[in-house]
Amino acid sequence: MTGPRRYVGERVRRNEDARLLTGRALFVDDVRLEGMLHVAFLRSQHAHARVKGVDVAAARRRPGVVAVYTAGDLGDFWRPGPLLVPPPPIPGLLFNSCTQVPLAKDKVRHAGEPLAMVVAESRYVAEDALEDMTVDVEPLPAVVDLEAALAPGAPLVHEHLPSNVAAHVVQRKGDYERARSGAHAVITRRLRYDRGAAAAIENRAVVAQWDPRAEELTVWDTTQAPIPIRNGLAGLLGLLESQVRVVAPFVGGGFGPKIMMFYPEELLVPWAAMRLGRPVKWSEDRQENFYATTQERGQIHDAEIALARDGRILGVRDRFLHDAGAYDPYGLTVPINSQCTLLGPYDIANYDSEFTAVFTNKTIVTPVRGAGRQHGVFVIERLLDYAARQLGLDRVEIRRRNLLRPEQFPHNHEILFQDSAPLVYDSGNYEPALDEALRIVDYERFVREEQPRLRAAGRHVGIGVVCYVEGTGIGPYEGARVTVEPSGRVRVATGVGTQGQGHFTVFAQIVADVLGVDVEQVHVITGDTREFHWGTGTFASRGAVVAGSACHAAAVAVREKILDLASHLLEAPKHDLELADGSVGVRGAPDSAVGLGEIARRANPLRGAVRPGTEPGLEATAYFGPERGSTANGVHAAIVEVDPETALVEVTRYVVVHDSGRVLNPLLVDGQIHGGVAHGIGNAFYEQLVYDENGQLLNASFMDYLLPTATDVPPVETAHRETPSPLNPLGVKGVGEAGAIPAGAAFAQAVEDALAGSGLEITEIPLSPNRLFELIAEAGAGARGR
Amino acid sequence: MIVEGTFTFQGPREAVWDLLQNPDVLVKALPGAKRLVRSGEDRYEGVMRVGVGPVTAAEFAVAVAVRDKVPPQRYALDVDSKGAVGFTRGTARVELEALADGRTRLKYTAELQVGGKIAGLGQRLLDQAAKLMTRQGLEALNQELRTRLARGSAG
Q1: What is the pLDDT of residues A338-352, one digit of tens each?
Q2: Which of B82, B117, B123 lies at the smallest CB-CB distance from A699?
């Protein structure tokens, strides 16, 4: 006997794809209800202005317009949104909380901030009504540049504050000054990382329906966090939490901005539906998305690394500015990720990091895939590149000499992570990952043979090899309910929302293995608060780690119930029983097997007596909360070819070796990495949100904001390593952001290498062919000047 | 956005000056101008219909204030326009130089802030569009000038 089939670890094809590929999956925009009204928002054209009045009288008179609301019409419902993530308890931390408002009242603080809401019989009418409105504003000088924002006398984004400082945080370990004084070399650089968009395929959308007979509000929302939205809406609308049902059906990409909660539209659509007694719908258009959906982060780092003669890192000092945008509802998650992730996979004994988060008249910054981690990786990896050059070391060698060794785990970095827990790496084995990446990309041969040969032929090819860690799988908790139905099929309900990750497959695999059923017999439900209403959401690469562990725990509890009942039924001790092929039976006696559906029926009898102390049915709910996040790691190696005349870069090979602990489904992990690398290449060479000095976004469309297309993203060669996490029963770590985080650093190193000898230094991301062309020209001019 | 350039009128400076101060002439000459009236001493109000690239033409309410006027040599304009697809604000400076051959060289420099949809979607085309519109307007004014001068000499 071969034993029951196992799914965990297998390349199981996705359970959800049949629905997605045949167009039967529900997205919020598919929700069409009788009598449904449509919403359009009047948005500020100015980045910074005092609002003297919004004249909506003509809009209200337009036929087909049902209602128009400005801030003044919201009454008590108008209030600043919640602070979603209070800062960690870091000593001396300064944080000024200024959260977004539903509709701007006295002042607008970024272009695109909503000023009024139109509800009409159709979106066409609603949009036309926007043109009937006039806004009386007094424009104010905009706060755009991070350093200018902090200069004395700068205009203030929030006038009740003494400056544009949103936060100031210092975290230190060891004694950097002392380390520096004994250093053989000290290298400093200014490094910049600019803004980008998440650019999910599906924009945001909200539909709300109030049922006065059931006294229930149903909200379909593209959120990554349906349960907190339900709880928050109930509080704001004066309803019981159980009166509100939030459904986050299939969502076409989250990437972070959809974890930002209580967007103005998300509050106002349900409010209007209750007030008007009719279903109300709003779907964000792409242009609105560029202004109104939260964005990736701009940062300027002044960083310094102190090294011993052999390339060992003695310490790192970093001072950086972080662009928070106009409001800071998401707390300090992003800059703290940057601060913590800078330490990377390296043994850095002395670290002195200080950042200032700055309010600007730009769209709010919240996590977007990587959530600031890429900035830390970019800084440390660039510093190591310059250090290697200065010390005459190979780029791989300097990294190898500084990697944490297996015996150093768990490794305490002595500073606090975004989840308020100490930054402790749970487990890791870093050097073999580096070796594997070098083997796959054939580093030695490339550097010794191929590159010199191609260079001799006049071609500019280069390689980049960078290491990274990814803090994943943070708490607080998630839950799941597993039910075996009388049909023998299994239902799993969990609170996290799904945006394409493969939750319907991976949770099914976990449960199928515990219960010994076919993976296709496990039906997963996510993101519907009526099905499960405890949990926090999908973010920080935590779905598989935290919700996956909860599914596992619930399945184990159901398995116990099955064994209890079957033991009684089959008159055999539990340890002699086996679950396989959807049945339970006595090991070695296949004829004894009873289907799980039959057990489920017996567990829920219509007559007769149940055994005292038992619960009906085969169902259990369980929760999982990790003590802290688990730390994944990996290596990216890229080979590029640069055309110095056009500054076009072709990525010819891209290798990712990743260790996210135990791999639940290599197909899904590969998919996460491929998507992440595409995101990362976009970050590196295509995607940049360009603001002018007045805070106007200059490329608010896909004509001008470039996304990498299929031809710009190379095939990604992946390899998985498995160093289990001790922090959860599955041994897993998250993988959602791993592809994106180090891509900028790998790209910069490879392009510099391709143009080695030109004096080119890449100290900023994103690049573009245009910007790279300028940098090549500057380097050429510098080289000629020397 | 900075829009600057020079243009040579086929006529004397005083005649050019008069033309530039006449809203009835300007409304005909400026591309997209639908209305332009004097709203006070050195103040004008009007409506223009402008589109750039993918932004469909839409109406802008325009307010212009003339200042630093030194006839017939130079003046400055404060421009404030707003509409559903965006806004422009800023200052334009105009200088007129009498050339020896009886023609007039106009030098203009405008520093404009552009916002809203027209900035976000049309940015790439904005400079070209502004240059084109300015050129078309000046050509039309030159045409009007020549017509007037011809009419004057004929009468």
Answers
A1: 999 999 999 999 999
A2: B123
